[in-house]
UniProtKB/TrEMBL annotation:
Signal peptide interval: 1-21
Transmembrane residue ranges: 153-175
Coiled coil: none
Residue segments, region Disordered: 121-148
Keywords: Membrane, Signal, Transmembrane, Transmembrane helix
InterPro entries: Kre9/Knh1-like_N
Keyword Transmembrane: yes
Start and end residues of each Yeast cell wall synthesis Kre9/Knh1-like N-terminal domain: 39-125
Tree of life domain: Eukaryota
The protein, known as: 15741_t:CDS:1
Keyword Acyltransferase tagged: no
Length: 179
């Protein structure tokens, strides 16, 4: 009987590991750009109970410019459940596929070693006067089943570990019965 309890405990632990929380940034992306002096709608999806309740959004430049180096706070303490934030781009940050947004847990102490909870794809910021993009299905990134290879690897690894463990328990029980 103790082995059955051990099996159920293992199943429970593995299930908790499989409930992966994830924040996926939908816009901006390579097709959905920002425009100087316009509002850029930042959108995301959130799943799981382990997502932070509030996020801080920072802008990072892939290639530092004279006007911009490091990280720039776009929004702070935004409820994750909102799924959107409107950022009015007022600084001259023009750059083609030069920008990335990083989401951080707003309740954690932010420093250069803090790991982001999500990161956008590269996107552009166009000069003032450029026609803003239309927010439709052609400009919104779709989340695919294979979008996070690390998660996929984790599931495969957990499955192998789980089946190996169950096999070991069954083998151990069958050996105990013969003795």
């Amino acid at each position: 009987m103790p082995s059955i309890k051990l099996i159920f405990l293992t199943i429970l632990v593995v299930f908790n590991f499989c409930v992966v929380s994830e924040i996926t940034i939908l816009t901006p992306n390579p097709k959905f750009y920002g425009v100087i002096n316009e509002t850029l709608l930042i959108t995301w999806t959130s799943s799981g109970n382990d997502d932070p309740q509030r996020i801080t959004i920072k802008l990072i430049s892939k290639t530092p410019t004279e006007l911009f180096t490091g990280e720039y706070a776009v929004g702070q303490s935004i409820p994750t459940s909102d799924g959107k934030y409107a950022w009015n781009i007022t600084d001259n940050l023009v750059g083609e596929n030069n920008w990335i947004l990083k989401f951080y847990n707003a309740l954690s102490e932010l420093n250069e070693k803090t790991t982001p909870v999500a990161q956008s794809k590269e996107f552009s910021i166009k000069p003032a006067g450029t026609e803003p993009p239309k927010n439709d299905s052609s400009t919104t990134e779709k989340k695919s089943d294979n979008s996070n290879s690390v998660t996929s690897l984790s599931y495969a690894s957990l499955f192998i570990i789980f089946t190996s463990f169950i096999s070991s328990v069954i083998m151990a029980n069958s050996l105990d019965l013969r003795i």
